[in-house]
Specification:
By secondary structure, the protein is of the alpha+beta class. It has one domain: Clam (outer membrane lipoprotein receptor (LolB), chain A), CATH 2.50.20. 20% of the residues lie in helices and 35% in strands. It contains five helices and twelve strands. The longest helix has 20 residues. The relative contact order is 0.22. The N terminus is likely disordered.
């Protein structure tokens, strides 16, 4: 039995945005480069300061672990809530472990991205170089993207009421807008929401964040479970 393509795309693309922006975002711009091109017309000085601070913070981050809550909303459907744990290590290694009752494991070893659904006993396998072509945000993960080149940053229309600092990132080449919320005390991205033109929204809340921790290489090694169906995605891209 194959995983429905619509379900796969709703989870997979937002996860790439989260990985790229919450973990490795802002690492590809040299500190001396001007930020004017990444800012929307009339962007506030606060957005300039936020982007600069996040850039410095994540340039110093070699690895991190976190827990997360995820909420997916679609027009006409009840919200889908899930949670799990995230592990990230430069360069290009990530692991999402979703908890029951909808377990799922998503792993990148730096070359290939694996998405394993134990309920279907199916693995979707995607060459990482092809996965990053499909998402400007995902391209940042391996240093193949550039915030200044690929996004425009702007301020939310309403002020924050939760103490976080927010920025809206709009891909210049088109695609879902991403709203990030950073903790001003730590510069960690703890809130991230992706919204597309069809009204689909995926929100992440990250917590229990630990930076620059030692992570064994085996965490990012993936072995296809016995009997699992393997579907190759994007091999011909």
């Amino acid at each position: 039995m194959l995983k429905p393509e619509s379900d796969h795309s709703l989870r997979f693309a937002p996860i790439w945005c989260a990985i790229a922006l919450g973990a490795a975002a802002l690492t590809t711009m040299a500190p001396s480069r001007p930020l004017a091109a990444v800012m929307a017309a009339g962007a506030s000085p606060a957005i300039h300061r936020l982007i600069e601070r996040l850039q410095r913070h994540y340039q110093e981050t070699a690895s991190f672990t976190a827990k997360f809550d995820e909420t997916i909303t679609r027009p006409g459907a009840p919200p889908l809530k899930r949670n799990g744990a995230l592990t990230w290590q430069r360069p290009g290694r990530i692991r999402f472990d979703y908890a029951a009752p909808q377990p799922e494991t998503i792993v990148s070893d730096g070359r290939t991205l694996y998405d394993y659904d134990p309920g279907l006993n199916q693995v979707i396998e995607t060459p990482l170089k092809n996965a990053i072509k499909a998402q400007a945000a995902a391209a940042l993960l391996l240093g193949a993207g550039n915030l200044e080149r690929d996004f425009v940053a702007s301020s939310p229309s309403t002020p924050s009421r939760d103490g976080l600092e927010y920025a809206i990132l709009t891909p210049k080449a088109g695609g879902p807008r991403v709203t990030i919320g950073a903790d001003p005390a730590t510069s960690n991205i703890v809130s991230l929401t992706i919204a597309d033109a069809l009204g689909n929204r995926t929100g992440f809340h990250f917590f229990a964040i630990r930076l620059n921790v030692a992570i064994a290489a085996s965490v990012f090694a993936f072995k296809v479970p016995d009997g699992a169906d393997v579907v190759t995605s994007g091999a011909g891209s």
